[in-house]
Design a protein that fits this description.
alpha/beta, D-Maltodextrin-Binding Protein, domain 2, six-stranded mixed beta sheet, four-stranded mixed beta sheet, 13% strand
């Protein structure tokens, strides 16, 4: 790569996409710049494998788009938002940057990124509907998805069997019925992460969606999580906690399976678990004791959280045409497959499957049919900081579920009003 990494030969075919690349994009065709700079993050966890993969992408793209120089710069996850905002605010930054759905509203609202509909004009209808919806603001597409994450339920078969439970609980009602049986064996049923540092997308929000609720009102100007559906979701959770069926350690959990009751075989079920954690559980529990199920089903729907990683174009790029060509290149089936294979993530396209040798890959692939990428909003992350402590207060019995959600909603609506 052109970032100080030693060049390595990557097992990547040089895909000849020149025809499609030259046809895409309606960017700054008159620019003299022939360079495209990309800020990429550790999507591929192993640094050497990541360097080799993106080095291969540089070579393949430069061959497919003669005359264009591509530089993929590896960036750390830490302080990502601040660094991107600072770069964009200063009129600098890369031509292309990897963003997630919760970042797109903020950067599109302040004009830092530009629509990329042109780069996806031949493929926009081939992505998961929920994924593509997460890329849109005011009807325009601001991100080109290149990979997809998904969570779903996992169960410890040994703990369920010891409690006389032969069928893993897949609905709220089944959880309520199974919880006392596990409690008699001194085991919690449902693990949860209630730490303020844990993302609500991986704990409370899926329950809210399963109940039929939403985080925001349709216009995005107020919140809606304190609806009757929201109260039902939080009551479901607090009742389990009070009964000892959600472990007390949940209050400090941060969605790290190995450190939590689920990983330590003190809880029998998790409902927002990624594939890598299912494989980690197999190493400690034994393959025969890991059961991967469909997303948890609530009173209204079956749904699990998962997000795409998407490439967005800097509104002040000096080579928007080249940037859009790179987006078209990376969203082509060949690159979706190669990146998925290198990273372990899934395909955001409905017409492309990523080969995966994991024994649980099929269950996770099936869960994509019920994926939700969250509810993108410029204030989404700040709102979590207001709601999480109120959920803790409800779990600890300091407030009723309704009072906790109403108090959080008041603070959140004030926040949204100040940002309008």
């Amino acid at each position: 790569m052109k970032t100080g990494f030693k060049r390595a030969t990557a097992p990547l075919a040089l895909f000849m996409l020149a025809a499609s690349l030259s046809a895409c994009g309606d960017g700054d065709a008159g620019s003299d710049s022939k360079k495209v700079t990309v800020w990429m993050y550790p999507v591929i966890a192993d640094p050497k494998a990541s360097a080799a993969y993106w080095d291969g992408i540089e070579k393949a793209f430069e061959k497919a788009a003669p005359g264009t120089s591509l530089t993929v710069e590896q960036q750390p996850w830490d302080n990502r938002d601040q660094k991107i905002a600072t770069a964009f605010g200063g009129g600098k930054g890369p031509d292309v940057v990897l963003l997630t759905p919760d970042q797109i509203p903020q950067f599109s609202a302040n004009g830092a990124i530009r629509p990329v509909d042109g780069a996806l004009k031949d493929s926009a209808g081939k992505f998961l509907p929920a994924t593509m919806d997460a890329m849109k603001q005011d009807g325009k597409i601001y991100g080109a998805p290149i990979y997809q994450t998904i969570t779903t339920t996992i169960y410890n078969k040994k703990l369920l069997t010891q409690a006389g439970i032969t069928t893993p609980p897949a609905t709220w009602d089944e959880i309520k019925a199974a919880a006392p049986k596990l409690k008699q064996k001194g085991v919690a049923l449902l693990d949860y992460s209630a730490s303020n540092e844990a993302s609500l997308n991986l704990n409370f929000y899926p329950l809210l969606w399963q109940a039929g609720g939403t985080v925001f009102a349709k216009d995005g100007k107020k919140v809606a999580f304190n609806s009757p559906e929201g109260v039902e979701a939080l009551t479901f959770l607090t009742d389990l906690y009070k009964a000892g069926s959600v472990p007390k350690s949940s209050m400090t959990n941060t969605n790290l399976l190995a450190d939590q009751a689920l990983g330590k075989q003190q809880a029998a079920m998790g409902f927002s678990v990624v594939l890598a954690d299912a494989e980690l559980a197999a190493k400690t529990w034994g393959n025969e004791n890991v059961v991967v199920g469909a997303p948890l089903k609530g009173p209204a729907r079956e749904v699990a959280f998962g997000i795409p990683g998407a490439l967005s174009v800097n509104a002040k790029s000096k080579n928007t045409a080249g940037a859009e060509k790179f987006l078209a290149f990376m969203t082509a089936p060949e690159q979706i497959k190669s990146l998925g294979k290198a990273s372990g993530y899934f395909s955001p396209r409905t017409d492309v499957s990523v080969p995966n040798a994991s024994p649980y890959a099929k269950q996770y692939q099936a869960a994509l049919a019920d994926v939700s990428p969250g509810e993108p909003n410029p204030a989404a992350r700040q709102l979590m900081g207001l709601l999480a402590p109120e959920i803790q207060a409800a779990l600890l019995g300091k407030k009723s579920p309704k009072d906790a959600l109403d108090d959080a909603a008041k603070a959140a609506d004030d926040l949204l009003a100040r940002q309008r």
